[in-house]
Design a protein that fits this description.
Number of domains: 2
Strand content: 15-25%
Structural class: alpha+beta
CATH superfamily of the largest domain: (Glycosyl)asparaginase
Strand order of the largest sheet: 6-5-4-8-7-3-13-14
Distance between the termini: 51 Å
CATH topology of the largest domain: Glutamine Phosphoribosylpyrophosphate, subunit 1, domain 1
Number of strands: 15
Helix content: 25-40%
């Protein structure tokens, strides 16, 4: 490969090497005019670019040609600073400050991401005021409260329970499935029996408030998804601990007044949750049927693997739903959250009013997500 140098090319050798290193790393086909390199490679821009590309110590071996003269540069090592990823970090769907605070405290005390997401989700499972997670969740059309949950660790291990009655902390049962069985998924009565064998107590999950709401619904028995009723439909949580391990969990009682036996995306690997510790993680909320049709969380992680930021990946995943021919997305909501290994996060939804809680750099903040349908 030939590179045209100006007369003072030898004086620009160090700057040129930096340019070569950066251009080779990020896949540029064009190297800037070396007369301008010194101005362009000021420290601030250099650090920013080096951090973005993840460069550390780069070895350059190349031949530089200028006219008939030849300048050989062999194995020249250039120190490139790296900015450390932001850790620890927690992100969760909807306005769930106490759940995120619980997870963050575990991480700040040196705990694992896996412990953090489990304990954080347990907070919402025990919150009877949230009528679609854990105890107090709205029942199916027969009056039965059934819960779904899954959990995934940094090794890629996964556990889930589906359609479970009478057990409040199903996210912990899912972890037991992952760690104590050769399986990844248990369903209904089998999952309940397994939970009891592990020391979980049976209890009535139908609260008086949920029962009253169900009885009022039976008057008309009208069933359709309501946009943003999912603000207490699901909690999906992702965390990265101080060691860089990423884990995630998702727990829900599903759509209110669903058909008996209905399962959404929340406990399904790649749908409601997916983790790849080399890349990042993603979680979903909203109408699970639509998430499953595009394997939304898996899609987001794969898009990040291809180089998209968490925000870009979430937006693309929503696009896969709304851009299907004939898709009427006006009457349902889907929202995604994501994080990558560098500590960057993203969130996006179809409609307005999806929000998420983010713990980052010691601050726990509820943030309104950007969204697609602005017309």
């Amino acid at each position: 490969m030939k590179f045209k140098l100006s007369k003072n090319g030898r004086d620009c050798e160090e700057s040129f090497l930096l340019s070569v290193a950066i251009s080779f790393r990020i896949g540029d086909c064009f190297l800037p005019d070396t007369n301008k390199i010194k101005n362009k490679m000021k420290r601030r821009n250099f650090i920013k670019k080096a951090s973005a590309t993840g460069l550390g110590l780069v070895a350059v071996s190349s031949t530089i040609l200028s006219g008939d003269s030849e300048l050989k540069v062999l194995d020249k090592k250039v120190d490139m600073p790296i900015l450390s990823p932001i850790r620890p970090l927690v992100i969760a769907t909807w306005n769930t400050p106490l759940a995120v605070e619980t997870a963050a405290k575990i991480l700040q005390n040196g705990g694992s991401a896996l412990d953090a997401v489990e304990q954080g989700c347990r907070v919402e499972e025990a919150n009877e005021k949230g009528q679609s997670v854990g105890k107090g969740g709205l029942p199916d059309r027969d009056g039965d409260v059934t819960l779904d949950a899954c959990i995934m660790n940094s090794k890629g291990d996964y556990g889930a329970v589906l359609g479970v009655k009478n057990i409040m902390h199903v996210v912990s049962v899912a972890r037991k499935v992952m760690e104590d069985t050769p399986h990844v998924m248990l369903v209904a009565e089998g999952a309940e029996q397994f939970a009891v064998s592990k020391g979980f107590e049976r209890e009535d999950l139908l609260t008086e408030a949920a029962k009253k709401a169900w009885e009022e619904w039976k008057v008309t028995s009208e069933y359709k998804p309501i946009i943003n009723i999912e603000n207490h439909d699901t909690i999906g949580m992702l965390a990265m601990d101080a060691k860089g391990a990423i884990s995630g969990a998702c727990t829900t009682s599903g759509l209110a007044y669903k058909m008996a036996g209905r399962i959404g995306d929340s406990p399904i690997i790649g749908g409601g949750l997916f983790i790849d510790n080399e890349i990042g993680g993603a979680s979903a909320t909203g109408l699970g049927e639509e998430v499953l049709k595009t394997v939304g969380s898996f899609l987001i992680v794969e898009l990040m693997r291809q180089g998209k930021s968490p925000q870009e990946a979430c937006e693309e995943a929503i696009g896969r739903i709304v851009n299907k021919p004939g898709k009427d997305f006006k009457n349902f909501q889907v929202g995604y959250i994501a994080l990558n290994k560098q500590g960057e996060t993203g969130a996006y939804s179809i409609h307005e009013w999806f929000s998420y809680n983010l713990f980052k750099e010691g601050e726990n903040t509820n943030i309104k997500s950007d969204y697609f349908s602005k017309a």
